[in-house]
Amino acid sequence: MRLLTLAKTAGAAFTAAALGGLATAPAVQSAWYRRLNKPGFQPPKQAFPIAWNILYTDIAVVSASTIDTLNDRGETAAAQAYTRALAANLALNAGWSWIFFNRRQLGPASVVAGALAISSADLARRAAAVNPVAGAALSAYPLWCTFATALSTRIWQLNR
Question: Are the C-beta atoms of residues 142 and 21 closer than 8 Å to each other?
Fold first, then answer.
């Protein structure tokens, strides 16, 4: 993996995290969020930054490795397709925070969470096709996004 590629994927992941954080940080302290009914399976708030920091690091490293491997094989179209899929995924990732926390649109946020879970599974599938170990490393991402979809959907159901 090339350092420049890793810098690009890490920069993209950091940007998504920062943009999402701009919507999330003030909202989790708000009276609106504290008043929401939340399911018993919601992890403690401290779990979210830990999980997401690990996942964003995983996304950056696996994506850089996948893109470089594809380019090294001469599969530039596949590398470009992966890069586009990564960009769409990170846009969904940051977008969910704005829809849920900033716009307070719980139903649409659940739909976006589902799309993010599907997009994350697609990234893991693409990475696994290039390197099964990398794909396995990225598999935690769609698992977490699937859990987040269930959590988001249940919060929506509890607060209609």
Answer: no
Give the span between the Cα atoms of 157 and 134, in whole angstroms.
Answer: 36
Q: How far apart are CA 109 and CA 153, in angstroms?
A: 8
- pTM of the model as a whole: 0.95
pLDDT tens-digit map of 114-142: 999 999 999 999 999 999 999 999 999 99
Q: How many helices (H) and strands (E) does the chain have?
A: 7, 0
